[in-house]
Design a protein that fits this description.
By secondary structure, this protein is mainly α. 58% of the residues lie in helices and 10% in strands. The protein has 12 helices and 6 strands. The protein has helices at 36-49, 51-64, 66-79, 81-90, 92-105, 107-120, 122-135, 137-151, 160-169, 207-213, 218-221, 230-240, and strands spanning 4-6, 13-15, 21-23, 31-35, 183-187, 202-206. A two-stranded antiparallel ribbon has the order 1-2. A two-stranded antiparallel sheet has the order 3-4. Strands 5-6 form a two-stranded antiparallel ribbon. A hairpin with a 6-residue loop joins strand 1 and strand 2. It is elongated.
Protein backbone atom coordinates (compact mmCIF):
# COMPACT_ATOMS: atom_id res chain seq x y z
CA UNK A 1 0.00 0.00 0.00
CA UNK A 2 1.39 3.39 -1.00
CA UNK A 3 1.88 5.93 1.79
CA UNK A 4 0.23 9.33 1.41
CA UNK A 5 0.88 12.68 3.01
CA UNK A 6 -1.27 15.83 3.38
CA UNK A 7 0.29 19.20 2.54
CA UNK A 8 -0.23 21.50 5.54
CA UNK A 9 -0.33 24.51 3.22
CA UNK A 10 -2.83 23.61 0.51
CA UNK A 11 -4.47 20.59 2.24
CA UNK A 12 -4.08 18.32 -0.79
CA UNK A 13 -3.13 14.66 -0.48
CA UNK A 14 -0.03 13.43 -2.34
CA UNK A 15 1.94 10.18 -2.42
CA UNK A 16 4.62 10.34 0.26
CA UNK A 17 7.54 10.45 -2.18
CA UNK A 18 10.32 12.87 -3.08
CA UNK A 19 8.49 13.62 -6.33
CA UNK A 20 5.99 15.69 -4.35
CA UNK A 21 7.88 16.68 -1.16
CA UNK A 22 11.42 17.76 -0.35
CA UNK A 23 13.55 15.62 1.96
CA UNK A 24 13.59 16.52 5.67
CA UNK A 25 15.25 14.32 8.32
CA UNK A 26 12.89 15.34 11.12
CA UNK A 27 9.68 15.33 9.03
CA UNK A 28 7.15 12.52 8.79
CA UNK A 29 8.41 9.82 6.39
CA UNK A 30 11.58 11.94 6.08
CA UNK A 31 9.71 14.59 4.06
CA UNK A 32 8.75 18.25 4.53
CA UNK A 33 5.28 19.25 5.74
CA UNK A 34 4.41 21.26 2.61
CA UNK A 35 4.48 20.01 -0.97
CA UNK A 36 6.95 21.19 -3.62
CA UNK A 37 4.36 23.41 -5.32
CA UNK A 38 3.58 25.34 -2.15
CA UNK A 39 7.28 25.48 -1.28
CA UNK A 40 8.12 27.05 -4.65
CA UNK A 41 5.27 29.55 -4.30
CA UNK A 42 6.36 30.48 -0.78
CA UNK A 43 9.97 31.00 -1.90
CA UNK A 44 8.84 33.14 -4.85
CA UNK A 45 6.66 35.34 -2.61
CA UNK A 46 9.44 35.62 -0.02
CA UNK A 47 12.01 36.67 -2.62
CA UNK A 48 9.62 39.21 -4.13
CA UNK A 49 8.95 40.80 -0.73
CA UNK A 50 12.64 40.77 0.31
CA UNK A 51 14.28 41.38 -3.05
CA UNK A 52 16.50 44.26 -1.93
CA UNK A 53 17.66 42.52 1.27
CA UNK A 54 18.49 39.29 -0.60
CA UNK A 55 20.36 41.21 -3.31
CA UNK A 56 22.39 43.05 -0.69
CA UNK A 57 23.20 39.78 1.12
CA UNK A 58 24.29 38.14 -2.12
CA UNK A 59 26.42 41.16 -3.05
CA UNK A 60 28.03 41.21 0.36
CA UNK A 61 28.79 37.48 0.25
CA UNK A 62 30.31 37.85 -3.23
CA UNK A 63 32.56 40.70 -2.10
CA UNK A 64 33.79 38.71 0.89
CA UNK A 65 34.25 35.45 -1.05
CA UNK A 66 35.01 36.68 -4.56
CA UNK A 67 37.80 34.21 -5.38
CA UNK A 68 35.75 31.25 -4.19
CA UNK A 69 32.68 32.37 -6.19
CA UNK A 70 34.71 32.82 -9.37
CA UNK A 71 36.36 29.43 -8.94
CA UNK A 72 33.04 27.64 -8.41
CA UNK A 73 31.46 29.52 -11.32
CA UNK A 74 34.38 28.64 -13.60
CA UNK A 75 34.19 24.94 -12.68
CA UNK A 76 30.44 24.86 -13.32
CA UNK A 77 30.84 26.59 -16.69
CA UNK A 78 33.44 24.04 -17.80
CA UNK A 79 31.18 21.16 -16.79
CA UNK A 80 28.06 22.60 -18.46
CA UNK A 81 29.12 24.36 -21.71
CA UNK A 82 25.98 23.29 -23.57
CA UNK A 83 23.73 24.95 -21.00
CA UNK A 84 25.09 28.42 -21.81
CA UNK A 85 24.85 27.86 -25.58
CA UNK A 86 21.23 26.74 -25.36
CA UNK A 87 20.31 29.50 -22.91
CA UNK A 88 21.89 32.18 -25.12
CA UNK A 89 20.10 30.89 -28.22
CA UNK A 90 16.76 31.05 -26.36
CA UNK A 91 17.40 34.52 -24.90
CA UNK A 92 19.38 36.46 -27.50
CA UNK A 93 17.08 39.48 -27.45
CA UNK A 94 16.91 39.55 -23.65
CA UNK A 95 20.72 39.27 -23.39
CA UNK A 96 21.25 42.15 -25.80
CA UNK A 97 18.76 44.37 -23.98
CA UNK A 98 20.20 43.49 -20.57
CA UNK A 99 23.79 44.15 -21.73
CA UNK A 100 22.75 47.53 -23.11
CA UNK A 101 20.91 48.42 -19.90
CA UNK A 102 23.76 47.22 -17.66
CA UNK A 103 26.39 49.18 -19.62
CA UNK A 104 24.24 52.30 -19.46
CA UNK A 105 23.77 51.99 -15.68
CA UNK A 106 27.34 50.88 -14.89
CA UNK A 107 29.43 52.59 -17.58
CA UNK A 108 31.79 54.22 -15.07
CA UNK A 109 32.34 50.93 -13.21
CA UNK A 110 33.07 49.08 -16.46
CA UNK A 111 35.55 51.75 -17.58
CA UNK A 112 37.30 51.74 -14.20
CA UNK A 113 37.51 47.94 -14.20
CA UNK A 114 38.90 47.86 -17.74
CA UNK A 115 41.38 50.62 -16.93
CA UNK A 116 42.61 48.83 -13.80
CA UNK A 117 42.93 45.55 -15.68
CA UNK A 118 44.90 47.27 -18.46
CA UNK A 119 47.36 48.88 -16.02
CA UNK A 120 47.87 45.57 -14.20
CA UNK A 121 48.61 43.78 -17.46
CA UNK A 122 50.09 46.61 -19.54
CA UNK A 123 53.40 44.92 -20.38
CA UNK A 124 51.73 41.66 -21.42
CA UNK A 125 49.17 43.50 -23.57
CA UNK A 126 51.90 45.48 -25.35
CA UNK A 127 53.83 42.27 -26.10
CA UNK A 128 50.70 40.51 -27.37
CA UNK A 129 49.76 43.43 -29.63
CA UNK A 130 53.26 43.66 -31.06
CA UNK A 131 53.31 39.92 -31.71
CA UNK A 132 49.90 40.00 -33.38
CA UNK A 133 50.89 42.92 -35.62
CA UNK A 134 54.06 41.09 -36.61
CA UNK A 135 52.15 37.93 -37.54
CA UNK A 136 49.17 39.71 -39.18
CA UNK A 137 50.64 42.75 -40.91
CA UNK A 138 48.23 42.64 -43.84
CA UNK A 139 45.15 42.40 -41.62
CA UNK A 140 46.34 45.26 -39.42
CA UNK A 141 47.08 47.52 -42.39
CA UNK A 142 43.70 46.71 -43.93
CA UNK A 143 41.90 47.54 -40.67
CA UNK A 144 43.84 50.80 -40.37
CA UNK A 145 42.97 51.79 -43.94
CA UNK A 146 39.29 50.96 -43.36
CA UNK A 147 39.21 52.87 -40.09
CA UNK A 148 40.77 55.98 -41.65
CA UNK A 149 38.45 55.82 -44.67
CA UNK A 150 35.30 55.35 -42.58
CA UNK A 151 36.40 58.18 -40.28
CA UNK A 152 36.60 60.42 -43.35
CA UNK A 153 33.06 59.28 -44.37
CA UNK A 154 34.31 57.88 -47.70
CA UNK A 155 33.32 54.67 -49.54
CA UNK A 156 34.97 51.60 -48.02
CA UNK A 157 34.18 48.26 -49.68
CA UNK A 158 37.49 46.64 -50.68
CA UNK A 159 37.39 42.91 -49.94
CA UNK A 160 40.28 40.43 -49.50
CA UNK A 161 39.26 38.87 -52.82
CA UNK A 162 39.51 42.27 -54.54
CA UNK A 163 43.00 42.78 -53.10
CA UNK A 164 44.19 39.39 -54.38
CA UNK A 165 42.81 40.22 -57.83
CA UNK A 166 44.55 43.62 -57.84
CA UNK A 167 47.92 42.10 -56.91
CA UNK A 168 47.51 39.39 -59.55
CA UNK A 169 46.82 41.96 -62.26
CA UNK A 170 50.23 43.54 -61.52
CA UNK A 171 52.04 40.19 -61.32
CA UNK A 172 52.41 40.48 -57.52
CA UNK A 173 54.91 43.29 -58.06
CA UNK A 174 54.98 46.92 -56.99
CA UNK A 175 52.99 48.92 -59.52
CA UNK A 176 55.42 51.86 -59.30
CA UNK A 177 58.92 50.31 -59.29
CA UNK A 178 58.18 46.82 -60.63
CA UNK A 179 60.08 45.06 -57.84
CA UNK A 180 58.73 41.89 -56.30
CA UNK A 181 58.63 42.91 -52.65
CA UNK A 182 56.14 42.83 -49.78
CA UNK A 183 53.15 44.81 -51.03
CA UNK A 184 51.04 47.43 -49.26
CA UNK A 185 47.73 49.04 -50.25
CA UNK A 186 48.30 52.49 -51.70
CA UNK A 187 45.46 54.95 -52.35
CA UNK A 188 45.92 56.16 -55.94
CA UNK A 189 43.95 59.28 -55.00
CA UNK A 190 45.20 60.02 -51.47
CA UNK A 191 42.77 59.61 -48.60
CA UNK A 192 43.39 63.22 -47.57
CA UNK A 193 42.14 64.31 -51.00
CA UNK A 194 38.96 62.22 -51.01
CA UNK A 195 40.35 58.87 -52.18
CA UNK A 196 38.13 55.93 -51.20
CA UNK A 197 39.14 52.45 -50.00
CA UNK A 198 37.68 50.74 -53.06
CA UNK A 199 38.86 48.43 -55.84
CA UNK A 200 39.20 51.27 -58.34
CA UNK A 201 41.47 53.36 -56.09
CA UNK A 202 43.87 50.84 -54.52
CA UNK A 203 47.26 50.05 -56.08
CA UNK A 204 49.81 47.45 -54.87
CA UNK A 205 52.99 49.24 -53.83
CA UNK A 206 56.10 48.33 -51.90
CA UNK A 207 56.59 50.14 -48.60
CA UNK A 208 59.33 52.35 -50.03
CA UNK A 209 57.18 53.64 -52.92
CA UNK A 210 54.12 54.00 -50.71
CA UNK A 211 56.03 56.14 -48.21
CA UNK A 212 57.63 58.16 -51.00
CA UNK A 213 54.27 58.91 -52.62
CA UNK A 214 52.56 59.69 -49.29
CA UNK A 215 49.73 62.12 -50.14
CA UNK A 216 51.26 63.53 -53.34
CA UNK A 217 49.36 63.71 -56.61
CA UNK A 218 50.28 60.80 -58.92
CA UNK A 219 50.86 63.00 -61.98
CA UNK A 220 53.28 65.21 -60.09
CA UNK A 221 55.08 62.51 -58.11
CA UNK A 222 55.51 59.52 -60.42
CA UNK A 223 57.23 61.21 -63.44
CA UNK A 224 59.99 62.35 -61.04
CA UNK A 225 60.26 58.96 -59.31
CA UNK A 226 63.64 57.25 -59.71
CA UNK A 227 61.93 54.04 -60.91
CA UNK A 228 59.61 55.82 -63.33
CA UNK A 229 58.41 53.75 -66.30
CA UNK A 230 56.03 54.91 -69.00
CA UNK A 231 54.82 51.31 -69.48
CA UNK A 232 54.02 50.95 -65.76
CA UNK A 233 52.30 54.35 -65.77
CA UNK A 234 50.08 53.27 -68.66
CA UNK A 235 49.38 49.96 -66.88
CA UNK A 236 48.29 51.75 -63.70
CA UNK A 237 46.06 54.25 -65.54
CA UNK A 238 44.57 51.51 -67.70
CA UNK A 239 43.88 49.33 -64.63
CA UNK A 240 42.04 52.18 -62.91
CA UNK A 241 40.23 53.29 -66.05
CA UNK A 242 41.99 56.68 -66.17
CA UNK A 243 43.10 58.42 -69.36
Amino acid sequence: MQLTKICTKCGKVFPATKDHFHAAKLGKYGLTAICKGCSAKYKKDYRRKNKERISEQNRQYYMENREHCLTVRGIWRKRNPEYFKEWYERNKDYSAQYDKYYRKQNGHRIRDRQSNWYHRNKDRIIRMRAQYKKENRFKVRTWENKRRTMKAALPCDLTPEDWVEIKASFGYKCAYCGRKKSLTQDHFVPLSKGGAFTKDNIIPACLSCNCSKHDKDFNEWYPNHKHYSRAREDKILDHLGHK
